[in-house]
Amino acid sequence: MQQNLFSTIGLIGKYSDSGVEETLTGLVGYLRQRERKILLDEATAEVVPGLGLETASRTELGRSCDLVIVVGGDGTLLNAVRSLAGHSVPLLGINLGHLGFLADISPDCMAHCLDEVLAGNYQEEERCLLHAAITRDGEVISESSAFNDVVVHKWDIARMIEMETSINGVYVNTIRADGLIVSTPTGSTAYALSGGGPILYPSLEALVLVPICPHTMSNRPIVVHSSSTVEVVVAEQSQPYAQVTCDGQVNLGLTAGDRVVIHTNPEPVRLIHPAGHDHFELLRAKLHWGRRLA
User: Fold this and answer.
1) Where are the domains of the chain?
2) Is 74 among the catalytic positions?
3) With contact defined as beta carbons under 8 Å apart, do 46 and 21 qualify?
């Protein structure tokens, strides 16, 4: 029945934001008035202990909740997406950050937007999630998910690294650059955009490979199908200076002979937006594009 839509709701808050407690307190009061069961992320509960809620691990949130509301910025939502990977629970973001491409509801209009969502008046979209694995001698030695991008890059050195790239087992090129970004459409407005990559529509079944400061200017971004498997091997002389970073938050080390294998997860990420959500309006607002002529 309509009144039971999203009957169990999980809450995740940004750990270091001074405004998260006030927003979470208001959100808890709102959901209690609407007789929703609330589960609080146990890590968030350590920072905001006074809410008096049942706590749960991220895995338990994924298993038990009909909806997870993330209070913070896009970085908080990126973290939540990775930790809930493999669960089909939809996520909705309350934005306390700066850009807010993903967490697109402001605290000021939170109650109105949630009224619409809980009444079933919302937009849901599915977005792809990357999986990155580092293999050594044929075995996976480390792995992580990424919602925005997987970046193979140099660290702590003012020199380029050399990388060989293949797609679906077919050799593409060898480049000397500061790194290589493998981005989802979601991540195309993040680091990949700064590197000169194209903006991809979120539902597009594609990935984009963006070299970072390549030595040869003919090394341009490449768009491939989202079903592609991208493999990157860093040259042996560059290995001590290279690492892999997922969403700018998870670092994976590399040693000589390691291969970085990147593909999309079979389970997509489900995002909830307020009714009337317009991606191009979001781009205009966040990227400060011009107004219409008439």
Assistant:
1) 2-128+268-287, 130-264
2) yes
3) no
